[in-house]
What does this fold into?
Amino acid sequence: MTPSRAVEAFARRHRYHPFEALPWLAAVASYFVFPDYLALGAQILATILFAMSADLVLGYAGIVTLGHAAFFGTGAYTAGILAANGWGEPISGLLAGATAAAFLGFLSGLVVLRTTGLALLMQTLVVATLVAEAANKASFITGGDDGLQGMEVWPIFGWFRFDLFGHTSYAYCLAVLFLCWLAARQIVHSPFGRSLTGIRENVRRMHAIGAPVALRRLVIYTISAALAGVSGALIAETTQFVSLSFLSLERSGTVLIMLIIGGVGRLYGAFIGVPLYMVAQNRFSEIDPVYWYFWIGLLMVLVVVFARGGVLGLFDRFRR
Amino acid sequence: MNTPALETRGVYKSFDALTVANAIDFRLERGARHALIGPNGAGKTTFVELVTGGLQPSAGQIHLDGADITGLPQAARVKRGLVRTFQITALFRRLSVLENVTLAVCERQGVGGGLFRPAGHHRAAIEEAHTLLEQLGLEDESVRPVNMLAYGRQRLIEIAVSLALSPKVLLLDEPAAGVPSSESGTIIEVIERLPSDIAVLIIEHDMDLVFRLAQRITVLVQGSILVEGPREAIAADPEVRRVYLGERDPG
It folds into this structure.
């Protein structure tokens, strides 16, 4: 008997689709088309990584969180404090940021992931608030309210200096985002990643097929925290500044808004929602410096009313 | 005497003043076709939860194949071959039929937590899932999301997912509940054709189905076993007729 089409389709689903090249082509093209906006572009790329990390827990595993900034900020402060105290090597800074954030994700995950739904949401919020308050109190090392001063980031590989125009920053963020995307994509298409979708869709069934649900949730929470940490470290290194706002509730909320605008649970939502939000924010705040947030709010309302699955959800609807 | 496939000894469970399982001694023999019946609220589904590990008994032991599993988490019991279906379909509704079954096969094979190979490379698992769907006549629907299928088909997938776990003991919680009678025939046929080495316990309201499928019947009333015996004896038992069979099901 010939192997069935269903089996073939399943066995091929992880293969690369030509559409997946689009964000990368767009990112490379933007480098040449908008040379005056590379600093903003680098921020966007690093924030995409943050949103993608949130998508892994929220979109795939169904873990609702309002505390993802805890990991973002931990990564940023780790890389920042190293660079302000004589170790400005950027790549080891990223790894240190990832490790610290993963450690925090693992420890807090042990506690908060015992719950689900609203209780979980509140607990993630509590963790982020605790971390922010700790950073505030430890002003002798974090700079507290004034932010972390005096970061000195060394050239990448001892060669590529971070320049004023953001050429290096942009390329650096793009390369790191690409590597992290490869890893995230691998995870999503692995049996582990598929089982996360199972946990999101029906946790009772996951228990009933013998899956160690708690362990799976803890693993993805830790991985996601590490990626958020890389993102924070990237922004710290490229802007050479870290402040308490990196740990704020607003940061946790904004990343969710960006993700929801793009589309949750599809890995590419971040690639659409983040640029859309950040470019809109940039434009609106120039056109209307006082009320720009109103326009962002309006954009959000439109998405919720007309495009429940985000921008990518709209594409799906037209395809059918 | 043979070790039973599943045995409960004095299993007791109460929620405050409400006793939902009262010293239940129950044996499910190897390869048995056994039914657990009882009026609404008799504690049938609670019993399933206690056996599978969804609830912890307040007292008593549960043995699977002679080994005490009372303290084991649900996942570990599944790994030992204790598998259940749900009274209300519990599937991954937005995933395809094939994926629903494949996820179960992957967990049984112990590769469900693998991070480094794409799921598509676990071809043996996918093909096994597909073969299972063919055996149940579901192969034409394997690429469709579960929530697009008729409820009767979903009940079959519920069984397919549990078979993917290679059960030794299979607890079917009202396998035909909510299914129109025109479709319940298929479900009965599938249950009749289950491999004879699987011990099957059917929790059911539908008496036709029970008397057709089960050789032994246990009647549960208010958390206690009222009577147990071969189906002919149960059908003739005046006590059973009074508390159960004689009453019209209000639902």
About this structure: The domain at 6-245 of chain B is CATH 3.40.50.300 (Rossmann fold).
